[in-house]
Design a protein that fits this description.
Elements (H helix, E strand, L loop, with lengths): L17 H13 L7 H14 L4 E4 L2 H12 L6 E5 L8 H5 L3 E5 L10 H5 L6 E7 L8 H10 L3 E5 L7 E2 L2 E2 L6 E5 L13 E5 L2 H11 L3 E2 L14 E2 L3 E2 L2 E2 L9 H10 L3 H18 L6 E3 L12 E5 L4 H12 L14 H5 L8 H8 L1 E4 L7 H17 L1
Parallel strand pairs: 2-3, 2-4, 4-5, 5-8
Antiparallel strand pairs: 1-9, 6-7, 8-9, 10-11, 12-13, 14-15, 15-16
Helix pairs in contact: 1-8, 2-8, 10-13
Length: 391
Amino acid sequence: MSSSFKIPFKGRGHSYSQEEIDLVVEIMSDSDTLTQGKYLQLFEQKYREFLGVDHAFAMSSATSALEIAAQLLILSDEDEVIIPSHTYTSSAYPFVKKGAKIVWADIDFESRVVNAKTIESKITNKTRAVVVVHLYGYIADMPEIRQLCTDNDLILIEDCAQSLGTSLGGKRAGTYGDMSIFSHHSQKNISTLGEGGVLVVKNPKFAEIVPMLRHNGHLGYQDQEYYWKPAMSNVDYPKINGNYIEPNNYCLGEPQCAVGSMIIDRVDSVNSLKRSRAIQFIDDLAKFQQLIFHRVDNERHNYQHLVAFVQNDKRDQFIKKMFLDKGIQCVVQYYPLHRYPYYIKHDLGEADCPNTELFFDSMVSFPFYETMKNYEIEYMLESTISTLKSI
């Protein structure tokens, strides 16, 4: 399908350096193990240093990190978790699987993410946790949200799948929450070979058991005389507040961890490149009122995606002409979750989210990735101007 587009909406966010490729080949050829090895330890160490946190654990995906976060909450069917409806489905369904009732929060129309006001209106005496999604690469109003959760004794979970490297008030995204998750999926600004994620936890007790939950319940025996007796390793499952938590297999392989330990060094430069390109693109379209962008010229936004609201119900016409006349694959993203059959079948189809409905029904997302050439961006700009003039 992508071959029919001059500029496709790619499923890959960046390229790899020859050094990174060579390292993967070396590990494939010579590494003693392809999982649970030294590169896992290195990746987690560099992540801790990058964020300035004490506990970070590499996972097979951001979804698996959210699965463990949901497990650690020990949820019942009486518990409510507040989550924006305008996000990717894995922000929500792990909590559904663990028995919680999802209460959908609306977004702020300008920023396209939740804020303290949209969250506060959803809090009840059954609320246990709040999931804040820094969608499109923009970090939400975390000082206010952090205070709101503290005042109401709520667990705060940051979904930083798209916001690695952003910051607000001198703190990185992912350092405000009690737990935070990150994604290194193929589309992200940096990717660990297609899939991968990280779970950050503040609670030291959680940090002790996450490695067990990630790796099949494995842990070492205490005071073994011989490494093979009674077995090479023990298998158990831990308790939280008297509740046992079942293990999983959410490990990230050594080649992926090795790549992650290298590409994290260029997060800020990739973010800076995409932000500068986004700001230039937005400014070059400033006189065209048909498109409303979210312009943030600082480290609060990394422009994981470049999105706009299309005025006057012209979104579908705009996308169609960009495709048919210009060969540019613009898309729409993040169908309101409460509209999906999955959530409707879980009796979660009701939502009071007018900004979410309004924004999604007229939003457009442009192709936007690190490897775009300058001439491609120029062509997309010229095509956008021409299309806007024609609709």
